[in-house]
Amino acid sequence: MDKRQLKAFICVFEERNITRAAQLLNLTQPALSATIKLLEEELATTLFIRRPRGVEVTEDARVLYPQARKMLSDMQALVTRFRQPSDCLPLKIGVEGDVAPAQLAQLLTVIRQHFPTVLLNVEPGCVGDIRLACESLRCEDELFMPLFEEHYVLAYPASHALSQLETLTHDQLHPLPWVMVPNDESHQRLLPFYGAGAAAANAGSYALALDLAEAGFGVTIAPAPLVAARHRLAWRALPGQPLMRRVGICYAVQAQANPAVERVLAHFSHGVSLRTL
After folding, report:
1. pLDDT tens-place string over residues 232-250
2. 132: which residues sit within 8 A by CB, 6+ positions away?
3. Which residues pair with 236 in a beta bridge?
4. Distance from C-alpha of 174 to C-alpha of 153, rounded to nearest angstrom
């Protein structure tokens, strides 16, 4: 199994189409098919089932995909490591969705100021040597170092009548049109604020929920740093006991073998805090 085969497999898996994958890889379709066939023979399994309009992935392909992505990433990291000057430490940071830009900026500022020899590579999603993410997105085999504590707040258009209320109760919240984020881990904790009413709209992330709130679909609940970045929205504290979440660094134990990861983690473990938002 080599890098060429892994790239071919990943591209076909993501595109679900041999022709499109071949175009993206600058290969002929027969050459790509032959590469996939060699990989299947080496693994003694079928990865793709050919259909008239594309390919269907097998269960073995679903198992292989995340491993193939990691293997390709590790190969690239090795190449990068040895091509850089000896005093340059590569560090790849993944940034999960619904992390406030101000928080990412603070983390990157600290790294730039205290670790000038670190070569940063910042990418979105579940990638990298370390990830900036909320605690609920920590994988089972990862550790978590908290950096920020965030309150959940009620967000609504700046012109909304909610701004005129001196106090806010659960009874006043229940009749409101709500934009909910049902797939987020906080959803169950927020149900008492929503009441029994149906959602005016659902969103797949807090950022999208705030987009819907700005467009006038309803009010929503989101972490305060995300709301603060939206100038067309106002916000206020929720009634009752404050609800919070933590955002920080997710990392696997083995990632500490990277000197840059080890130094960054040590810096924050010595009482350094970014909890300013």
Report:
1. 999 999 998 889 999 999 9
2. 93, 94, 95, 96, 99, 103, 104, 107, 147, 247, 248, 249, 250
3. 154
4. 15
Question: What pTM does this model have?
Answer: 0.66
Condensed to tens digits (0 to 9), the pLDDT of residues 38-56 reads 999 999 999 999 988 889 9
What is the spatial distance between Cα 249 and Cα 131, in angstroms, rounded to a whole number? 5
Provide Rg for the chain, Cα atoms: 23
Strands (E), 203-257: 219-223, 233-237, 244-252
| Whether pLDDT at 274 is above 60 | no
End-to-end CA distance of the chain: 47
Query: Average pLDDT for residues 76-90, to the nearest whole number?
Result: 70
Q: What does the block give as tokens for 213?
A: 């709130």
Q: Do residues 145 and 269 touch, judged by C-beta distance below 8 A?
A: yes
Beta strand extents in the chain (DSSP E only): 48-51, 54-57, 89-95, 118-124, 130-134, 142-157, 178-180, 199-202, 219-223, 233-237, 244-252
